[in-house]
Amino acid sequence: MPYGVHIVDGSADVVLPTMLRDPVQWLFSSYYKVLRKQTHQLHEKFITEKLDLNDGIVHLRSNLQTRLLAGIDDSGECTPEHLEIAKQTLRDRIDTFGLLERYDESLIMFRRFYGWKTPLYVRKNVGTNVRAKAQHTTESIKIAEQHNNLDVQLYAFAVSLFEERVREQERGVPAGSGDLPAFERPLRTLGEFNGSALRLCITASFWAQDAAARVW
């Protein structure tokens, strides 16, 4: 949803967090998504024309994160002026933001900002055919950077701003508060449990429910 929709529809008093992603990795992931999702509008074209990664990514939407933060849709030209608007929006108008590549740290940022409980999450919607950015050739990375050049600049700005926000939050956290000291302790996720441990948790949960039912 482009920034500004909340103003147009009269919902100005809303919470505005967001999450940014490495724009090169986003393009790579989007390409693999087109290949595996037969209902995608580009799937038939990619398969019929046998488009490889380098040829395929140039058909994907460009600079989407810049467009959304600048408040414009994904049609028409996206300019350096839009990039500056996007930077200003991220810095001054978004309540807080995170980086997908630093997901656990971002959740702690959100937790501190909004007063959430410590989050525990499960990984979902992870593509089975996705490859990490580092597994691609220098040529592919260069093509993706050129196609998403404004998003690349926005993301670099976001990383720097994120580091600054982390330092600001760390200065305001009391010693021994139990949060990630300097964000060095990763969150535990349900995905880290092995099968037997997860089954044990599920069994214990059902046992507790059954015991409660018998008591009452």
Q: How would you sum up this structure, described in words?
A:
This protein is 53% helix and 4% strand. The protein is built from ten helices and two strands; from the N terminus they run αβαααααβαααα. The protein has a two-stranded parallel ribbon with strand order 1-2. α6 packs parallel to α9 (149-171). It is globular and about 55 Å long. The protein starts with a helix and ends with a helix.
For the termini, the CA-CA separation is: 48 Å
**If you average the pLDDT, what whole number results?**
79
Structural class: mainly alpha
The strand order across the widest sheet is 1-2
Helix content bin: 40-55%
Taking pLDDT < 50 over at least 5 consecutive residues as the criterion, the unreliable ranges are: 4-8, 181-186, 188-216
The number of distinct helices, counting runs of at least 4 residues, comes to 10
For the secondary structure, the number of strands is 2
**Secondary-structure element string:** HEHHHHHEHHHH
The outline comes out as globular
Q: Bin the strand percentage.
A: under 5%
For the CA atoms, what is the radius of gyration? Answer: 21 Å
Largest sheet: 2 strands, parallel
